User: Fold these one by one.
Assistant:
Number 1:
Amino acid sequence: MAPRFWYRPPGPVLRLLGPLVPGRRPAAAPERMPVPVVAVVSLSVGGTGKTPTVIALAQRLAMQGRKVHVMASGPGVPFRVDERGHAAQDVGDEPLLIAAFAPTWVAEDPHEGIRAAAGEGAEIVVLDGCEPTGEVAADLRVVVEDAHRGFGNGFAWPLGPLKQRLASGLTPADLLITIGPEAAQARFLEAWADRVPCRHLAGRLEPLPTGMDWNGLDVVAFAGIGAPERFFATLRGLGANLLRAQALSDHQELTSALMSRLENEARLRGAQLVTTEKDAVRLPRAFRQKVVSLPVRLEFDDWGPLDQALP
């Protein structure tokens, strides 16, 4: 759990020490790749909406007739994710989810992963999971942040939520996408607009219509994502009656013991078990037919600026 002071106005001691902390060092010489690269990064630690952004970009490029692959960070030599043959513990929950939308690769070395994707026909690669200023020369660098949290207190870890100083993280960015409702977007602009040097787009996560009638439905919800409160707020916005909102740590293992406890509670209270799309790929096999997932997609009022920015 993030320290509370990360998201509070800094006191005098933090204002003195915060500017001295550089955060992670950027790579010295980014390497140009054989195909165009769209790098999706976040300056903040924790959940920001990066995975829905990667999916949205991959789908958008595919709609334009581009052969798009996704490269995600992970251990070992490059390999392509098999959404049917791999499990989350093999490749990670995010790559397994993304693989349902575009050919997805996992590699420890992003250069090798991108070259492997290019060798298999990729015309453009969306790079997920790299550092804000990484070793790969991106043709488009997109920074994704949560509009609710913004940049926190504006300082780098461990005195704040940023991976590096705000100015050095935003300087190489071509586009900043903040995700959240209108009120959160307005607060973000009020606090940070004068410190954003690149183009800014406001997006929101909207639930996909699945035919499920959520209005008045009793649910036991659980989420092991970076910002589980966003998921719970979405369910409430659909009219669901949350009898329990169980926040788990990001990527937490959904053990049979944990799932049995939640299942028993839901059964005793006559409720439906509900989770996120990303958590659903980590469910033990015995529970996959017992839990409903709520898919969400990134949406903009106008996709034109993003289309124009894509290489």
Number 2:
Amino acid sequence: MRRKIIIPIVLVAAVIAVLVGVLVVPARGGAGTTTTAAVKQLPTLTPLELIGKVATTLPGTKAVHGQFEWTNGILGSSFQLPAEAPALLQKLWAGGSGEFWFQDGKLRLRAGNGTDQVTVAMNGTSVWVYDSTSNTATQYALPADTGTSASPSPGTNGFNLGNIGNLSQLMSAVNLSVTQGTVAGRDAYVLTVEPTATKTTLGSINVAFDSTTFVPLSVDIVDAGGTTVLHAAITSVDYTVIDAGLFDYTPPTDAKVVHATMKADPRNGATPPSMGTNGTTEPTATMQSLTVTGAQVTVGFPLLSLTSTMTDLPFQGAYVVAHKDQGSFAILRYGQGFGTVVLAEGKLTAAQQTQLLDALNATSLGTSMTLGSYTGTEVATPLVNAFIWTTTDGVFHVAAGPVPLTVLEPFVTNLK
């Protein structure tokens, strides 16, 4: 039952992120934008001023209605969802379009690709998810103790950019700039985020905000080669009051109806238990930075590390994550910002390793490869590359990061 609940929620979360999370538009001129010269001149804003405007103005927007579209190639053209994935998710993974309504913490949307559609309706007391491919409507009752009287705006519920995290750390890893354009017929500010690292797979992230409401309107993620690997955009938008009855949902008369209860209300920012608090399978982490030797003593088995310094990948520290079922893993970090490679090392049983590799092979992303003295599986995607292998002492290794294979492969071969 838990598996059946999680998949619709993940799908809903993904679509909501496309709608009102961080949506991007091509800053260099593309579908849905105009060139800067054709746009009404807006007051000039610096990147930090724009972020401040979003933080202060976005929460004042109480209602949003619009149409949207997305295309997704973030894992590359060869990626395939596992055969057991829901049929609708298979159809919507690469792209689609839809319409949404958001007001006072209530949401309704439909998204699809051709005749295959998903409908989501959240009215404050329950969430309906209707899948047209299976003609199934699932109603998730929200817990009674979550405080349904709150009326958050599109600027709350985790959509506020104030939740970005450590802004100073982000600023050191990227260059920020602001241009102007139009999205969905609205004058917009376009925030372009470009990594300072020279050897990275990421080219830029471009986010467009309505110049009046500062609601995010679109997002493009561009790889280092200039190809847009993820595009999501609101194509039409208005902010008029929405009829409250729209958020109530009645499934088709011939639909199979399933009832379930959510264990946490996503409207109120519910979070899972802290790491290591449940005493079962959740991980606990040693958050202080360790040397390789210190991490090795903690995990109790030999660790691989770089035998010679790589200029682009300076050692940044090691961390240890302990897991009740999988044991301890050491996490070694090399590089900076979007030019970082993370090396994870731990012991898995043969069955666990087989399960992981079988799941990876089902996606068609893995390729058998020998790098130096290590034979394993190389995973190449537009934004993240990885190499996975097991050494003769039974330690499982994963080296991964937003760096090109020309950086990752020498890194692996220099590990001893």
Number 3:
Amino acid sequence: MKLTYTGGRLDRAGAQRKDDAWVVAQRARADARVVASWHDRTFVRRAADVAPTPALLPAAVARAASSPDEWVLLGLDTDGTPVFAAEVDDAAGAALAATVPGAEVVELRKVASSMAPSDAAMLAFARGILIWHRRHGHCGGCGTRTERHHAGHMRKCPACGAETYPRTDPAVIMLVEREVPNGPAVCLLAHHGRLAPGMFSTLAGFVEPGESLEEAVAREVLEETGVRVSSARYVASQPWPFPASLMIGFRAVASTSEITIDGDELTEARWFTADELRAAGEWGDEGAALKLPRGDSIARQLVEGWLADQRGAATN
């Protein structure tokens, strides 16, 4: 299963980034490159018939737009070049958008599925860790402003010494399937208020304390739709920096069929046949009554995997 935001090529330099002198030397390198983030959007280059690529800023340009002390080391590229991530303010962001040749500022999700996997993974890494810094600037114990360490991979409280590391919230996401006697198999998809009209996706939810992943799958499906599952099989995982999740994908088998939506998160949930889903439109297709999840999501890959299985079963 090929998942967007996976397949990163950077060496994250986990040992070296704890050495302050080494980090300072990397920031000072003339060949250093910076992934700039402006209002959680990123700079890319696009051309006809060519996949979008990150518009990495030369170190000299990035220094004029942000303080190197605030840069976060993403890692070393395959040629040893250090790659950093940095937030830029309104004035600097507007200037960069106008002066970096061929660059445009985009929402990552709109271009990621058409990028090389390693490029999309790099931009996702930058987005996630910069958002973490912005949201965790104070100590959770005493409230003091924390300081950056380990090239931006740890924040430490100067008052009480508490250390905080970038967090990722685990969330299960599952395609629930059911065999139908004397009929085609079906899968359970739902629509909630955050989705575009007509778009149905797989169920998902955050893992709670003291809960296994399989238990989270069963609980979320039951809470949201009233459907019980008898088993859950892990498929794949996907980093999801929107803002800070790890989506852990499952295929689950339903033991009941009656649907009762929770009314809080979901507006509708339905069982779909493979033929119905193959006839569905894409995200943004205004003329389609039924739309599938975006191509960059593990939800879409779970649906596509199920459709492929149904196609295979029909030929056996």
Number 4:
Amino acid sequence: MSLKHWTCKSVAVIGLGYVGLPTAVLFAKAGFKVIGVDINSKIVKLINTGISPINEPGLKELLKNMLNAKLLFATTDYEYAVKNADAIIICVPTPVDENNTPILRFLEYAIENISNFLTKNKLIIVGSTVPPGCIHNYVVPLIEQKSGLKAGVDFWLAYCPERIAPGKTLKEFIENDRIIGGYTYESGKMAAQIFRKVVKGRIHVTDVKTAEVAKVAENTFRDINIAFANELALICEKLGVDVMSVIKLANTHPRVNIHFPGAGVGGPCIPKDPYLLIHPAERLGFKSRIIKTARMINDMMPSHIIDLILYGLNLVDKSISNAKITVLGTAYKGGVDDPRLSPAKEIISKLIALNAKIVVFDPHCKETFGAKRKTDIEEAVFKSDCIVVVTDHPEFKKLNLTRLKQLMNDKPLIVDGRRIINPLEAERLGFIYLGVGYIV
């Protein structure tokens, strides 16, 4: 069958996590019959009763609408999904291990189960972020071996990685440009054909390996930019200059766009994608310089927050031992409830090890990383010696500093890991203010 005669009416989405579930509901909204597949039966039951396991704006309502329209249902049955779908989109996670080596077992499990029931004229799209070369060297041989079918002849294969941010998933899925890498020219065109029914942004079709590199290059660039901002902040601390003023002025140059420094880089993508990029190249003898250094800088920022806390407490003659410290935010970024790889974990763990009394407040995220959790910010800061801003939640940008100071102990300290509090305002109210890139 050729592209001219191929039609896609039904789609199976494998993996109903942060990427897969939005993918499923948006393809259903576009009119496809969607079968969502997940190995977790609890997640499947929740989805089929209209309960989203992911807190994402608009997702719950859209899920219910698609279920009611009978355009979507979830199952653990790979056989049913593969046999009844024209296209299969794989959205399983691809993390790295403690040695920063890609973990592909979730992808392998999905591919093996798809291959067991694969028949001719199906389109398989890998939506998971993968290390360059993975499709040619890993995915294709595994499918062909398990299914007995030939890629590009008996079935089509493409790569279309996500380009979404938690908190804006549905909007960005639809509006952002997408990159599609075809294993063959026709495979890329087929994948583009169905994504054009969902995505309003432009579709850029290329070969598989180029698409693989482009995807991980995007987040690697962001990681390096943040690392530069963090190192610039450390320089500014030594020189007694506010890094935020420096960045604001530097960014007035038409060809400069420096990101902001912070307490560390978290989330499911940026900390691992640089390792996905360099891993296959290192196996061929390449030695990373910039990329690994950037990762090292960003990974050290939680420790720098600890240094700022110790420095600030010393300024007011207080000991870290038994000091009450209020950590604002355990989510990895503002406006979401996702704690994955949040710098708060390392910060809290080190503070606990130093015998400090730690209380956390996060209006979105319930994770505490071993600290006591308060659901009211005034309770969280009551008799506190130090506030540490770890997450840039919108609520934290509107803190009533006057009220918080009244509740805290004498000589209160603010350590701003996200630079969302006005230093001059905090100092005017009587706080000792220290921020990433700001020590006076």
